Amino acid sequence: MLPSLPLLLALPFLMAAAVAAFPRSSRTTAAWLAALAPLGGLAILGWLTPAVMDGQVVRSVVPWLPQIGLDFALRLDGLAWMFAGMVLGIGALVVLYARYYLSSQDNAHRFYCYLLLFMGAMLGMVISGNLLLLMIFWEMTSISSFLLIGFWSHRQDAREGARMALVITGGGGLALLGGVLLIGRIVGSFDLDAVLAAGEQIRASALYPYALFLVLAGIFTKSAQFPFHFWLPHAMAAPTPVSAYLHSATMVKAGVFLLARLHPALAGSDLFFYTVSGIGALTLLIGAWNAIFQHDLKGLLAYSTISHLGLITLLFGLSTPMAVVAGVFHILNHATFKASLFMAAGIIDHETGTRDMRRLGGLRRLMPFTSALAIIASLAMAGIPLLNGFLSKEMLFAEALTAGGPGTMRMAVSIAALLAGVFGVAYSLRFVHDTFFGDGPHDLDHVPHEPPRWMKVPVEILVVICVAVGIAPALTIAPVLHAGAAAILGPAMPDYSLSVWHGFNLPLAMSAVGVVGGVALYFGLRRLINLHGVQNTATGRNVFHAQLDALSALAMRLTNGIANGSLQRMLLGLVLVAVVVGAAPFVANPGSPNWTKPQPIPLLGWALWLVMMGCAVATLRIYKQRLLAVLLVGGVGLMVALTFVFLSAPDLALTQLLVEMVTLVLMLLGMNYLPAQSGPERPRWRKRRDAVIAIIAGAGLGALAYTAMTLPPNTMAGEMLARSLPEAYGQNVVNVILVDFRGFDTFGEITVFGIAALVVHALLRRTRMAPEQIMPGPPIKLPVPADLAQIMFPLTLTVSIFLFLRGHNAPGGGFIAGLVLAVPLLIQYVIQGSASVESRFGFDYIRCIGAGLLIALLSGCASMLFGVPFLTSGHIDLHLPLIGEVPLASAIGFDIGVYLVVFGGAMLMLSMMGTIKPSRTRTARKGEIDLQRRSALTGEMH
Fold first, then answer.
1. Are 191 and 71 in contact (CB under 8 A)?
2. Which of 336, 466, 662, 841 has the fewest CB atoms within 10 Å, counting from its CB?
3. Longest Cα pair distance anywhere in the chain, in angstroms?
4. Cα dihedral 169/170/176/178 (nearest 10)
5. pTM confidence score
6. C-alpha–C-alpha distance, residues 219 and 125, integer Å
7. Which letter, b or e, does each residue of 286-316 get, where b requires 16 or more Cβ atoms within 10 Å of its Cβ?
8. How does DSSP assign 273-342, residue by residue?
9. 809 near 732, Cβ under 8 Å?
10. For the residues of 743-776, what is the DSSP string, one character each?
11. Rounded-to-integer distance, Cα 738 and Cα 891, Å
12. CA-based nearest residue to 866, from 17, 12, 72, 57
């Protein structure tokens, strides 16, 4: 049973990769591939259902980073099972709906990829058994929802809505991370079982208020609670399948899911009660009132979603067992009727070309079937009897009347619930009346009609669920509700009845008042004011943009003050910060270092040191002669490499030597970008200041290096030496550290290296040489060096493979081998030019980087299939004919990734540095530049 949870989580990501792998397949094929993820997930969930219904918690735990308390722990209890079912069930319906909604001009493959990435992130979040892992998937939902909301990137409102959602939810995610870290500090573990069992310990801690407010900040931003609610209406610029998925069962429910998930740990204090219930009540009323005055169908549904999310938050804030049950119940009910309403709004938009209710009306005559479905779902949203929304609304009224706290609090909650009932009926009535009744439609480009048959199927299924739950809740939704609520309440689970009729009581009277009051309010507003003429002001949007503008202005002032184009100033700031940070511990705890007596330096060591110092001093003297200065800097690097040889560090010596060769070529190529004349000399006082800072920084680094080299042998180095062969099956400790003990660090480093290469490529791929800098005549041919460079390539390729294969047990490895392979190609680039080399070699460096990162990631994850942490090494002895026994460590897979990334990244950067193309137009090549035809962004001629 245990492998089922990883498979459940992996399915959306695997299907996203499958859809992306066949970009030329038909839209129907893409839809079927995408549908396999939720359908397969539902099958796995169904297989696990008996265990969950028996009260078991299905777990799958793979150690990942146990040193920081992060395990790849998956946990499926009743609440996670319920949410996973919503994510997968409604996700399957959205996949079917999107097949017919998206136009032929939309990239369906890209859409399904984004949708499946979001589905996988939501699944990972709800079944995470570790708070840190939950945070990873939480942020993945923010990023993937940004891609979905901004899918129509050609529209400004889509780009703006996506950015607003990302900024608000991303900021909340940072706050949530702080809260999670505080909870981990209080409990001593990030394991979800430990956190849920430590409620009293958390509430008794002095850090509880800070942890609570940070966690609530993440919850409120994600679930669009006041004052962060304004991003949700602007997210309606997304395609309607996105709105139907994100804003009914997934993204906005992520916040209330976390509120339910952590309820046993955080609830039970007055601070939680007043904060959560107060914010929930405010959001409930603000969203419901604003929904009445919206003109866009999706805008009305967005504000009604805000209101219903406030209702759920209010119920969880009240914290009584029945309030929690009601909150879980309304999560389910809202997901069904709101998803169906969003899909119905999308059908109307698809068939009429507009969502503006001022141009609609009378659609019941033109689209009778769609109208019937949408009206039933609207009545469920309004809380009309015999529909699912009525049952959870009755629970809200009952819990409001018995709310804890002082009598004024009970009265305030009751009034808020009653007003929300009135407003809910009013905006539901407007949705129905202005869309399906009255005169209209007006000013449409064509006469609307019913959509394709299969486009209505998802709406039909959801509406049938609304009716079935409303009529027979005990037979339909009761087991699901019990499983979800029991996972939160545990032994405190109350006895309750889901019958439709509870007799004449006060909650029923409040429902009747809400219906009558809502009808009266809507028609009263129509009589008193012109609802179609109301101008809605986007206060939240305006405040958001004002803050962004202020922040951008501040950032610009800081940037202009610090990074004003002066390399010297930026280097000065970097060195000063390094000096301050490095000196801070010694200033705080002054004391003389416990250095051992230095050993005598042989004559060779003095010679290396003197040559190094001579090169450094000479560089300062002739820095204006750039070529000589670069060569002298290379001499310093060469002496450093020889010093490593002198100190018996062959791996470091090889790496330093190769890096020095590549860096030398890079600096020579970079001279193309330098101005012909150096800038004016700096004042003498600046030179003295820089000299003092350089001496302090150099002395500090020297002292740190000497301290590290004179440490006693019983340090971590001794531990690495002892563990290298028995645990990682390698005799070369340096390589074992890179690919095994600190492999995760190495993976991060090659990722950064690959990103840096891509950034260089993006910056320089459109670079053009100014006409006045083009040398006349053809390039100088160097046949003998060119032939030698070509002869070198197969030899260095052989050396590169040799160094790679021996790296785990002798000096070498992927990093060194990648640089060795790059050197002869770089020489060919310098001698023959990029066009000649690339016409023969034809290697795609960008794909090489991507392949290397993918191989490194997959080789690291392969160990997790055997129940051991990421990048744990394995070992096998191969018996090959003629060759004999060949020891092979699994770390070689990761080293292949390092090899490809280093080679591809180095070649990409250096090839771009050496490929400065002349201007494209004949006019520019002649030096006749028309400023009106030059791009303001790139400087290229149009």
1. yes
2. 841
3. 103
4. -160
5. 0.78
6. 13
7. bbbbbbbbbbbbbbbbbbbbbbbbbbbbbbb
8. HHHHHHHHHHHHHHHHHHHHT--BHHHHHHHHHHHHHHHHHHHHHH--HHHHHHHHHHHHHHHHHHHHHH
9. yes
10. HHHHHHHHHHHHHHHHHHHHHHTT-EE-GGGPPS
11. 10
12. 72
What are the structure tokens assigned to 805, written together? 């294969």
Backbone angles phi, psi at 918, to 5 degrees: -70, 160
Residue whose tokens read 């009347």: 401
In 505-538, which residue ranges form alpha helices assigned H by DSSP?
Answer: 506-528
Dist CA 450 CA 370 (whole Å): 7
Cα–Cα nearest to 418, from 309, 507, 320: 507
CB 220 within 8 A of CB 172: yes
Pick left, alpha or beta for residue 534 (phi over 0 → left; psi -120 to 50 → alpha; otherwise beta).
beta
Joined together, the tokens standing for residue 429 give 């009535």
Chunked mean pLDDT (size 10), the chain, 942 residues:
81 94 90 94 94 91 76 92 96 94 90 95 95 94 94 90 93 95 94 93 95 96 92 92 90 93 93 94 94 92 95 94 94 94 93 89 90 95 92 90 82 92 94 88 83 92 95 92 93 86 85 93 90 82 88 87 76 87 81 75 86 90 84 89 86 87 80 70 82 89 81 72 77 82 86 90 69 52 68 83 84 87 78 68 82 89 76 74 72 88 87 60 43 38 38
Residue type, 359: R
Sequence-distant (6+) residues with CB within 8 A of 319 are 263, 267, 268, 272, 273, 404
The span from the CA of 889 to the CA of 881, in Å, is 19
Selection from 650, 647, 669 nearest residue 658 by Cα:
650
> Are the C-beta atoms of residues 426 and 518 closer than 8 Å to each other?
yes
Integer angstrom CA distances of residue 451 from 32, 91, 268, 508, 584: 20, 20, 50, 38, 69
Would you state the structure tokens that stand for residue 583, as one six-digit string?
């000196």
